[in-house]
Amino acid sequence: MLMTDVSSRLSPAILPNSLSVSRLVSVKYAPQRLPVFVFRSARASYDSVETNPSVDSVIEKEEKNILACPICYNSLKSLISHPHGSVGSPASGSTQLQCSTCKKIFSANETHLDLAVASGTKHYTEPLPLSIELFRNPLVSFLYERGWRQNFIWGGFPGPEKEFEMAKEYLKHVLGGNIIDASCGSGMFSRLFGKSEHFAMVFALDYSENMLRQCYEFLKQEANLIDKKIVVLARADAARLPFLSGSVDAVHAGAALHCWPSPSSAVAEISRVLRPGGIFVATTFIYDGLFRFIPFLEDLRQEVMRYSGSHMFLSERELEDLCKSCGLVGFTCVRNGLFIMLSATKPSQISSASCEEL
């Protein structure tokens, strides 16, 4: 899950073995819309993704990449590969991006790009909440789409296909743009977004390396995803999204909000990266109804959050306040038992009331 949980789910890209020279190019996909960046290859054969996927990535100097440093939020530039095992060459097995301001370097392995703040550290470690560490476990990552997620039906979740169709209704105003699948896990929704061909680019983000590996494997096997290059896998923290401000059309977070140690930090980040008019769609569990009569429920919630790092939402109003406090408007939701799907929008312009206050 995105570490505020992109543990969730941002990873660099499916980097096909056959891709020798790949670059990020700006594509204008609709009038009055921000450019979207897609990977293109001078020599591409996307029929096979089974060999070494390392590539020599170059961002064209005249174009602007929407990926950003998670530390200072400035743009990243590609480090061009050189022979004999140097940066990004097949011998070194990785591609590297460097922040244009703080000069921090971010690398990619065969499955994903690592855009977490602690990327590249060898000796520094920090304790992470249980809700994050759980999904970094290889066994949990393996089982997530092979039985774990199916159990959500008992909480009212309609199932991935139905949830995807519901989400599309909220996202219809930004079709053709780019979308982040935050805390993507094994890529269940990332694949659906990719197969739908409704989006120019799908950024599948998660903090769990093992979830991203599962996502990569499932993507390789997905016969119905014709253009695999539009799905970009990256490891990232939901509280430090590696994107330029105002560069993303939509953010989706399926069954992830409750796994984020600080939902407010993550939603604030989502609000930052969304362009004006961009849409945030999320699903989570909500414990209201009969749960309201559990004695000391608020105290119980505090203890759960203290030890697990996960969050218990107790009302729709709480979720609406969360979105509003982070600058999102137009909150709406759909309920089914413990399941809730919510949507909120980045304001496209300052309201007249706000102008008067200014």
- N-C termini distance: 39 Å
* Superfamily (CATH H level) name of one domain: Vaccinia Virus protein VP39
Low-confidence runs (pLDDT<50, min 5 residues)?
Answer: 2-63, 81-93, 352-358
Helix content: 25-40%
In short:
By secondary structure, the chain is of the alpha/beta class. It has a domain at about 130-355: Rossmann fold (3-Layer(aba) Sandwich).
Question: Could you please describe the fold and organization of this structure?
Answer:
One of its GO terms (biological process) is methylation. Residues 181-281 form the Methyltransferase type domain. One of its GO terms (molecular function) is S-adenosylmethionine-dependent methyltransferase activity. Mean pLDDT is 77; it is low at 2-63, 81-93 and 352-358. This protein has nine helices and 14 strands. A hairpin with an 8-residue loop joins strand 1 and strand 2 (36-41). The protein has a domain at 130-357: 3-Layer(aba) Sandwich (Rossmann fold). It has 358 residues and is an alpha/beta fold. The radius of gyration is 20 Å and the shape is globular. It starts with 20 loop residues before the first strand and ends with a helix.
